Amino acid sequence: MSTLQQVAFRAGCSVATASRVLNRNGPVSDEMVRRVRRAAAEIGYRTSGRAGNRRPAIGVLIPSITNPVFASSLSSIQSRAMHAGHSVLIAQSNYDPAQEADAVASLLQQQPTGLILTVCDPEHSPALSSALPPTVLLGNLPTQRFTAAVATDNFGAGRDLTDHFLRKGHSRILFIAGHFAASDRARQRYLGYVKAMEAADYPPFEPLEISFVNSLDQLDLSDVVSRLKPTAVIASNDLLAIGVMGALRRQGFSIPHDISVAGFDGISLGLLMELSLTTVEIPEVTMGAAAASLLLDMAENAAPPRHLTVPYRLRPGGTVRNLKAVS
């Protein structure tokens, strides 16, 4: 049976240093952390912090457990974790930056192998301000401190979806999103929209930011539609796009005859509607599995952190009208 002394000898450090690394209870250089974890992995050492029959676990933070996108990611994370002998601990932030730190603190109490986090804004998240075990950002871009991330190019996705509308003759395109402070993904998609509009010499509209967590069946777009008279609406995710379609229909608009609508994510619900939703498919299952694999490699094998970019795909549907088509 391997011992802490053997880990320290193999890593070329003191027993106290090896203990600090493996129990995460003191300052240690990044290089030493990698050396100790690699040594522990090579000789099969497990810390007493995982004593008894308790199974090692991965902690996962998501914005909302009810969004099908995050449910898909969770499913693939759990599958990969179980294959590696880990369980999964889940917390949600409800798209609230103030709740993120408490949620992560709750996960840390369970002494996880590492964390997979989808935060509102990684540059300003209070959840990322303290010392953390190996951590992978999922859906967020990497930061200078947290360089391990699995994401898609949300800026490019926003630009390409806007170009899709422009090619079909739309120039009055409204962007509706959750509050950007609650989602850097939504903000990046909007910036891509702005880039495409400006490249086509059309003035972009200011975004309409609404709460992600409010009931979408109460969404009222009468004022903004009356003022801006858009021919098309881009929603920052598919659930919001479906809510937008409901709001427009309550106002008497026909989709896509009067107003076209599109979203992001590619959730299966968008394919089950009377008109399939035009969307940008984000491979959340692939991203979740990649994040789990990357985290386990970092935590168990002392692998260096990496930034993985997963490709997206535009999925045309029946909710976008071609204004250039002959009537």
UniProtKB/TrEMBL annotation:
Keyword Transcription regulation: yes
Domain of life: Bacteria
Listed GO MF terms: DNA-binding transcription factor activity; transcription cis-regulatory region binding
Keyword match Amino-acid biosynthesis: no
Keywords: DNA-binding, Transcription, Transcription regulation
Entries under InterPro entries matching the protein: HTH_LacI (IPR000843), LacI/GalR-like_sensor (IPR046335), Lambda_DNA-bd_dom_sf (IPR010982), Peripla_BP_I (IPR028082)
One Pfam short name: LacI
Domain HTH lacI-type: residue ranges: 2-56
PANTHER family cross-referenced by the UniProt entry: HTH-TYPE TRANSCRIPTIONAL REGULATOR GALS, LACI-RELATED TRANSCRIPTIONAL REPRESSOR
Protein name, per record: LacI family DNA-binding transcriptional regulator
Source species of the chain: Rhizobium jaguaris
Highest classification ranks of the organism: Bacteria, Pseudomonadati, Pseudomonadota, Alphaproteobacteria, Hyphomicrobiales
